[in-house]
Amino acid sequence: MVRARRADEVGLDRIPMFSDGVFAIAITLLVLPLTDARITEGRVGQDLAELSPRIFTFALSFVVIGRYWMVHHRIFDRFDRADRRLMVLNLAYLFGIAFLPFPTSVLGGHGSSTPAVVLYATNLLWIGCASAAIWWYGSSGGRLTRDEVTPQGARATLAHSVAAPLALLPSIPLAFLSPTLAMYSWLLIVPVSFAADRLFPDEAV
Amino acid sequence: MVRARRADEVGLDRIPMFSDGVFAIAITLLVLPLTDARITEGRVGQDLAELSPRIFTFALSFVVIGRYWMVHHRIFDRFDRADRRLMVLNLAYLFGIAFLPFPTSVLGGHGSSTPAVVLYATNLLWIGCASAAIWWYGSSGGRLTRDEVTPQGARATLAHSVAAPLALLPSIPLAFLSPTLAMYSWLLIVPVSFAADRLFPDEAV
Amino acid sequence: MVRARRADEVGLDRIPMFSDGVFAIAITLLVLPLTDARITEGRVGQDLAELSPRIFTFALSFVVIGRYWMVHHRIFDRFDRADRRLMVLNLAYLFGIAFLPFPTSVLGGHGSSTPAVVLYATNLLWIGCASAAIWWYGSSGGRLTRDEVTPQGARATLAHSVAAPLALLPSIPLAFLSPTLAMYSWLLIVPVSFAADRLFPDEAV
Amino acid sequence: MVRARRADEVGLDRIPMFSDGVFAIAITLLVLPLTDARITEGRVGQDLAELSPRIFTFALSFVVIGRYWMVHHRIFDRFDRADRRLMVLNLAYLFGIAFLPFPTSVLGGHGSSTPAVVLYATNLLWIGCASAAIWWYGSSGGRLTRDEVTPQGARATLAHSVAAPLALLPSIPLAFLSPTLAMYSWLLIVPVSFAADRLFPDEAV
Asked: Which locations, inside or outside the cell, does it occupy (chains A, B, C, D) (predicted)?
């Protein structure tokens, strides 16, 4: 069952490993705006309470990166080879992951402003679109996928990867009406992702 | 002995590797409050002496993360497959690891205050409970464990994973009486972990 | 086909993995000057606009590291063993990667100055030369390469690794005439890399 | 040739991988004091020149970590199993690696002071001693080593791991006479390491 490699094929292993490195670092750098926060002697409790918006955005970004990581994992579980275009698409994806600590920091400091909300939502949309593009490129015509992936399974993985970006989309127009309302609308990610996973169940690979 | 994969099973390898990335980064970020410290020309010695509480909390967090890493290692050595719920539990675990540099930094600056001690101990408890939950979920009914894991071996791993959180528990009420005493009580981790490892010896897997 | 190992041969696997770690961290640290930026309440939009040079240099460095990572990947895909000299050359290479966040930060703050541009271009040249040296050392006389690598394939990989440094070279004299013009000249990386990949196609390994 | 595992044996793979993560991050964090440096408009050149001690200490620490990484690599290439004591020794080793950005930062700012030099040299000695302890523990009586490791090869690896700490030792008393002289004495690492590698050549494993 060993196929001859096409000339532009490359080793698959380093791509998810390199991506995991970027994921792990980005997820950990999110804590830095908290670590740098100034806490005054004698009012540690109040200062911690004032940091709660930053703690909330840390948790939010952690959950979002965690969800994206799980989808990325699922996608690369279904590939058994890679080529150079996949590497470029994956770098575009990681650009979004590596950039996320910046919008997270702006949002933690200025959650009530329209540009902060739009910047954050745009960043998340970028990652979601790159994720869908990676799967679409690798799965169309079975270009890079394992033999076990059925058309139905491919549709399921596509649904999982577009769920989060779709749930984020409404927040961008909403941010011009009410930034606070827009932020609450991000909680849509949880039911929409859950529904996508239920409606389009994974198949074993 | 190759079993058919269940539909929701996922590749096991990326989970401990991704976790190791988060561990490695969190353990290394702990040094940043030290690196950022201002040292004045001509009194380098005194300034270093004044940094000793920060050096102590760096060492403390390093030892705690090191212990948790060893237990995490032991748990995943005993699994031979993974599913999506395990990934979610593991992300909850890593949330605690990635967050730890923040309580460490607060504690290093304000060790004598009740909220700093409670925040730090709560963070450690979170990780400990997530660790026990990962093992409990994966081992109950042999859901994800290797065939070689005996009921006795499973109990041993559970004991190892609950030892550290149990030793930390008393420090939270103590912090309201005396934050300093509460911090000393953390040293209980060393004898309690040692006792757990002795009383419940590992079995080969 | 198992050869006896020469006495100074070392395991190959840890070198690309360690390199990927350094890549992943350097690519992620690039965001820190953005995260540290001060955003003032009530003028979030304008402050974000003023950060655009920093966002541009983040994107530029990300693209450059991404390109270098792809070439590094290609080089190590073609090796099947390693020795101590290769490790030293690779550390010289990683020195350049780990250093890059510093010129990126200087450039983001002072793009219009000659020293900032020269520093950045020199750093990129260092990495490019180290990359070419790694390939030249490992491929000459088939020292570390797989049997499948033909002389033509070796030439192609050499061309890919020198493309980016060659495209950067003109920017150093240009920086003394016009730093802005020198920065625009970096965009030469895109067509020159593309041309190198087209003129010297990879062969399957 | 499959041996039965002893009860306290653990998987070997995650230890060097976790260590590489800590190495990669520590080596990359060394750049942060440079990234944070304040550069004033209109005197970028002079400010960069004033940063040269920090650039020198960055390069020094990079070379030292690089040397230690190569020795660590050699040691773990010679092991084929691991136990819990090895994990604890390795964590003690990584404590020194993760701590190094702090002495590096102090030294970069205050190289001419005795405490800065002593702190830095002590940190390097700690890593060197832990490295020798890891090898001594794992190789004595062939506890964890591959069958191919001869007594002569074991002596060679011990010599490689003690070379750097031995070369650093004189700098601690010297720092009380002249911190500058003590720093120059660190350059002894290069000839001493080179001599150790020549006098005690590696054997293939």
From this structure: Membrane
> Which chain C residues are Cβ-neighbours of A96 within 8 angstroms?
none
Interface check for A37 against chain C (CB to CB < 8 A): the answer is: no
Report ipTM (2 d.p.): 0.81
Nearest by CB to residue B102, choosing from A31, A77, A201, is A31
The answer to whether the CB atoms of C9 and D204 lie below 8 A apart is yes
Interatomic CA distance for residues C198 and A10, integer angstroms? 17
- The whole-angstrom separation of Cα B101 and Cα B62 is 10
Contact D25, B24 (CB under 8 A): yes
B43 touches chain A (CB under 8 A): no
Q: Cα B51–B53–B54 angle (5° rounding)?
A: 65
* Residue C203, burial from CB neighbour count under 10 angstroms (0-12, 13-18, 19+): middle
- Contact across the interface for D203 and C98, Cβ inside 8 Å: no
Q: Is the CB of D201 less than 8 angstroms away from the CB of C25?
A: no
Q: In terms of CA atoms, which chain A residue is nearest residue C60?
A: A95
Q: Which residues share a beta bridge with C145?
A: C79
- What single string gives the DSSP state of each residue in B101-136? HHHHHHHHH-TTSHHHHHHHHHHHHHHHHHHHHHHH
Treating both helix axes as pointing N-terminal to C-terminal, what angle do A14-29 and B14-29 enclose, rounded to 10 degrees?
40
Q: Give mean pLDDT in consecutive 10-residue pieces for chain D, a chain of 205 residues.
A: 53 81 84 77 78 84 86 90 90 92 83 85 92 93 89 90 88 92 87 88 70
The candidate with the shortest Cα–Cα distance to B107, out of B125, B120, B124, is B120
Half-sphere exposure of D176 (CA within 13 A, CB side): 3
What is the C-alpha separation between C170 and B112, in angstroms, rounded? Answer: 59
Partners of C44 on chain A (C-beta within 8 Å) are 106, 110, 113-116
Computed over every residue of chain A, the mean pLDDT equals 85
CA proximity to C31, closest of A4, A27, B110: A27
In this predicted model, what pLDDT tens digit does every residue of B96-153 receive, in sequence order? 999 988 888 888 877 678 888 999 999 999 999 999 999 999 999 889 999 888 888 8
* Neighboring chain A residues of B21 at a CB cutoff of 8 Å: 20-21, 23-25
Chain D residues within 8 A of C102 when measuring between CB atoms: 31, 34-35
CA dist B83 and A59 (Å) reads: 23
Q: Which two tokens stand for residue A195?
A: 């529904």
pLDDT of residue B111: 65
Q: Which among C196, C86, C191 has a CA at the least distance from the CA of C135?
A: C86
**Predicted TM-score of the model (pTM):** 0.84
What residue spans define the domains of chain D? 10-199
